[in-house]
Amino acid sequence: MNTEITVHVDGAPRRLTIDTRTTLLDALRERLGLTSPKKGCDHGQCGACTVLSGGRRVLSCLILAVTQDGAKVVTAEGLAAEVATAGGEREDGDLHPVQQAFIDCDALQCGYCTPGQVVSAVGMLDEFARGWPSAATPGTGAPRLDCAEVAERMSGNLCRCAAYANIVPAVLQAAAASTGPASGAEVAR
Amino acid sequence: MTFLNELDAIGRGLPRRDGPAKVLGTAVYAYETPLENAAYVCPVQATIARGTVSQLDTTAAEALDGVVAVLTPATAERLASTEDRELATLQDRKIAFRGQVIAAVVADSSEVARHAAALIRVTYAQAAHDCELRADRDDLYAPERVNPDFPTDTTEGDVDAAMAAAEVTVEQTYSTAMYHNNPMEPHATAALWDPAGDGSLTLWDSTQGVHPTRATLAAVFGLDEAQVRVVCPYVGGGFGSKGQPHVNVVLAALAARAVPGRPMRLALTRQQMFALAGYRTPTIQRCRLGADHDGTLTALEINVVEQTSKVKEFAEQTGVPARMMYASPNRRTTHRLAALDVPPPSWMRAPGECPGMFGPEVAMDELAERLGMDPVELRIRNEPDVEPGSGKPFSSRNLVGCLREGSARFGWSERDPRPGVRRRGAWLVGTGVAASTYPVSRMPDSTATIRREGDRYVTEIGAADLGTGTWTTLAQIAADALGVPVSRVDVRIGDTDYPMASVAGGSSGMTTWGSAVVEAARAFRSRYRTEPPDGAEASGVVQPPDDRYAMHAFGAQFAEAHVHTDTGEVRVPRLLGVFAAGRIINPRTARSQFIGGMTMGLSMALHEISVLDPRTGHVVNHDFADYHITANADVDEIEAQWLPEHDPHVNAMGSKGIGEIGIVGTAAAVSNAVWHACGVRVRDLPITLDKVLHALE
Question: Does the structural domain B145-179+280-440+549-693 have CATH classification 3.40.47.10?
């Protein structure tokens, strides 16, 4: 069965006639030809397909595309543009602070899990800023964004090259750059 | 060969050139190649481990709207070569292992292809199968050689007499599990058969070597190599499993030739990869060490039992590192195989060295314990003057330096050798050490071309970047070999349209391709001096290595392990690796290689095991929910350091391969640390809590 939907992907409305069995991931990759969300397991076990939907990080392989009619989806490719829209000052070729931090810290090797890691980090920093706790959050006191918090919150994104030891400092660097000294969340190395 | 002495780019930690495309996700991997009107291929797998397909009813599948073709042994083309039986797909109805491809559907969409594949009705004539590896089997056999071409057995002196006379001995059996490479990018191919003229096949394939893949596929289909082009600018990880084409590549090409002019996309699912994309054999290692009271080894033996498949032999060289690691006048190493009804094992990161430095390196720790000697000092005591076996001098060997530097950095001198006596809250704390090694390999064939294009210098070679940094490091080598700034050098790799390059395997890439680039640069400079005109071009070919020397990289790995006194949970809060691996081309990407290997070693130590049920021949934990690899929170402090090492014999760059040594020895260091923490020797990987819990009560 086919259905018509419109999904806003990286800022542009995309009208699609799709098989109702199609996942959001396959819609993005096989219908729209996007390369940024990756398929690593197709079972929600690796995180390579992570995108933002409605601002939250989601596993696009576990979502049927028909449920995303009208949704705003952002892939790693669209992150830099998102920043440009918000701040209005970014130029072509610029990267989102998380992306730049990944390059600075060499937080990638083969690159296949990388767009999912980047999107997951953006979503995770937002969750932290909203005060969401994780298994690594102490029971009392204000949560601190330290290595243990980042590692815990990024553990849904597998990396077989094992860039983990570089991903954690990259996320902390991006958090420090984007929050600044005056913001709410306390960032610790 | 000119040794590069005036360095500017080599040794600089330049960021990887493919970084921006990879963080954006715009780097295009095989399956994602933009192709108009592509069809999708879905394989059907056998659900028995041995027998014959007696009936294959494809009626319902063919009737489904959107199905383009159904490939079966009755309809698929006859291949020109079926010599490699792993690749001889859909040529007969025999089933040699569970998960083997028995049919495939081609359809307009991936959903329809999958639906149609599920509609194919299969009946089997099932035969008894045998999938169980045991050391006491009576049908073990000695292969002719072990991977890639080592003698199966070696003997020096008299091990039995030396063991009988030894003052201190260790005799134990160690085992490593079945492991799956599991690169994050599944094995994937896009394929197009263009029927014009004699026809041409283009494969956008995720491979560690475009030229070797072309050679294999051309032979399988009886095509001239000139009719086949293989393209692969980015590889989403391989770790050996993409070193040789597996059946998925042949299947994609079969589908493409069945539907001429229409591009095909075929990506294995994660589950399918556990049967179709290779794996590391489980190993059983019987180790014996004999020594004098002062720690001098008098006997060293490793007898390895491992598995292969009946359909194709692969003999992992697990006993090989024990042939050169330590001095001993008496030494024996053997390999025996059980041929089972299982998928063919293949290369996985550091075949031989990775499993083969587990048993012996834990045995060394056990020997140190019996001697009452420090395990670092025991290793130093048995340092050979020349390579055991061959008698060749080492081009460089700095294992002792790695052990000493690592000891100092790790704080080893303060270590109390007694096991099970340090407690921090609910955790028992221990530390352990093990040695690492990996050979310096150079492949016989690779060619590079350097050309002036405008004000740029373009280096072309069909090499691969698996995340190893090739895009960046080859530019650094070319820049220094040409004597130009690296910012003026472009690199083009990953396409058979470029000059022939060897496979990215055996940590041979930089040595082989880099040497070809240096040769090309030398020819370019001697032809054009300092004023090359636009279009100036020269090629260079890799030269044979200087075989007067034994060439290896070395390392020492230190681990801290915590064992929970109530649950037996094992954590590794600290890992340090110190390596001596020649000149480091790019410290930034090199560090990633080292810690990536070490983390995969940690994963092998604590998490990874493919559980093959002998009743079904099926890897029951065939996904990431059940086949556990290290996740981010499993890794705490992990650090890689290297010694400055000048080795003018290895190659013009003075470099040694670093992609694999990081995984070698890690699991032994962790096991040794777990013993030091809680007093339990875990000789059977992975180190799960059930193996230590009994001693904690």
Answer: no
